[in-house]
């Protein structure tokens, strides 16, 4: 038995896989991100939320947001070892999860559009080049957090039609002060902002909303994908809830900026199971 985890900033999907029968059991816990949580906090999340029997598990493959350098990977690895009591743990980035799920052992461009965003050129074995995403304050173009940040900023500065502003405040019952408190003083502001993509999706027939998404995706291509020389001749493949939810607008933005789109997956988990089996 192996345990595969795909962890974003919002939630973690765990897949318990029987190598002999290919049977799979799933559970979800809140997201794990070593940039926002220390070792004790990760163990606490798992203690509260993890629900599967893993007595037969021999190895854990953990793919996570924030697991982009050896120090952060080691932190997550120690937390997982404490909770599961299993020594054989392989911690990789969520970007490696995207690459392996989308491309297997082939080469190409893999990208993430979820709560955050990221991209790389993958040669079938390793990530060869990566434009740094920089997080939702400095980068993360096209991500749920940036879509939500843009929406909230536009609403508070009255840059969208009044009826959209009214719908927003009626739905969420938040004041400007509430929003500022959540963004600047509470943990996981990226999760909070990304939650507003549901409002965008529910109002996507409004020109202001479709334009917001299209422009954010165009910025993702221009500020990230355009920096990979290989992208001029290869389709860009995506995983993530934002990419999947707004896939038609994603294709439009790609065409506007001169790129092509390949696969679009909501989650990399099925592709990771195929890869490891």
How would you describe the overall organization of this protein?
The chain is α/β, with parallel strands linked by helices and 277 residues long. The chain folds into three domains: 2-96 and 270-276, Nucleotidyltransferase, domain 5, CATH 3.30.420; 99-137 and 214-267, ATPase, nucleotide binding domain (Nucleotidyltransferase, domain 5); 144-208, Transcription Termination Factor Rho, Rna-binding Domain, Chain A, Domain 1 (Orthogonal Bundle), CATH 1.10.720. The chain has helices at 39-49, 70-84, 94-103, 135-138, 144-156, 162-172, 176-185, 189-194, 197-202, 207-223, 241-245, 247-257, 269-276, and strands at residues 2-7, 11-17, 24-30, 59-64, 89-93, 108-113, 117-122, 127-129, 236-239, 261-265. The strands form two sheets. A five-stranded mixed sheet has the order 3-2-1-4-5, with helices on both faces. Helix 1 crosses helix 2 and helix 10 crosses helix 12 (247-257).
Layout of strands and helices, then pairs:
Layout: E1 2-7, E2 11-17, E3 24-30, H1 39-49, E4 59-64, H2 70-84, E5 89-93, H3 94-103, E6 108-113, E7 117-122, E8 127-129, H4 135-138, H5 144-156, H6 162-172, H7 176-185, H8 189-194, H9 197-202, H10 207-223, E9 236-239, H11 241-245, H12 247-257, E10 261-265, H13 269-276
Parallel strand pairs: 1-4, 4-5, 6-9, 9-10
Antiparallel strand pairs: 1-2, 2-3, 6-7, 7-8
Helix pairs in contact: 1-2, 3-13, 5-10, 10-12
Features:
277 residues; alpha/beta; Nucleotidyltransferase, domain 5; Transcription Termination Factor Rho, Rna-binding Domain, Chain A, Domain 1; five-stranded mixed sheet; 13 helices; Euk-type_GlcNAc_Kinase; ATPase_NBD
